[in-house]
Design goal:
mainly alpha, 0% strand
Length: 137
């Protein structure tokens, strides 16, 4: 065989449609975005930030409240009074009080979520409306 025939022989592989789509997504990360795409990404990021902050605060508050509520319940239901040498009624009153505080904290998570979302929407509304006006033209 001569050298020209050896150079023409080779292996080619085509990727599936799923792999082609993945390649395209990866390539788009490294190409310069157009101005409209950049504005749309900013709009999505602003819209998501409204609920993300509120959700994080509400989750933390709800979890802390549930843990405090559980601690109060465990004070009532265990033999902690006997272990500490206290009267059972004292531990019962403390356990109920701690449980009520935890229940109040846990129940405040949703109203606080709504308040944060409302305040954040009010703050970001002008920017979001400006971006949507520009993109809708």
């Amino acid at each position: 065989m001569d050298n020209n025939n050896q150079e023409k022989i080779g292996f080619t592989y085509t990727y599936s449609a799923k792999e082609q789509a993945e390649l395209k997504r990866i390539r788009e990360k490294y190409t310069a975005p157009t101005e409209d795409e950049d504005k749309m990404a900013r709009l999505r990021r602003l819209d998501a930030s409204v609920t993300n902050t509120a959700q994080a605060v509400a989750l933390v508050l709800g979890i802390i409240g549930a843990l405090i509520l559980g601690f109060g319940m465990s004070l009532i239901m265990t033999d902690l009074a006997e272990f500490l040498g206290l009267e059972e009624t004292v531990v019962m009153v403390v356990g109920v009080s701690v449980g009520i505080v935890g229940g109040i904290l846990a129940s405040l998570a949703y109203p606080i979520y709504n308040a944060i979302v409302k305040a954040k929407r009010k703050k970001l509304a002008p920017e979001i409306i400006r971006l949507t006006d520009e993109l809708m033209k």
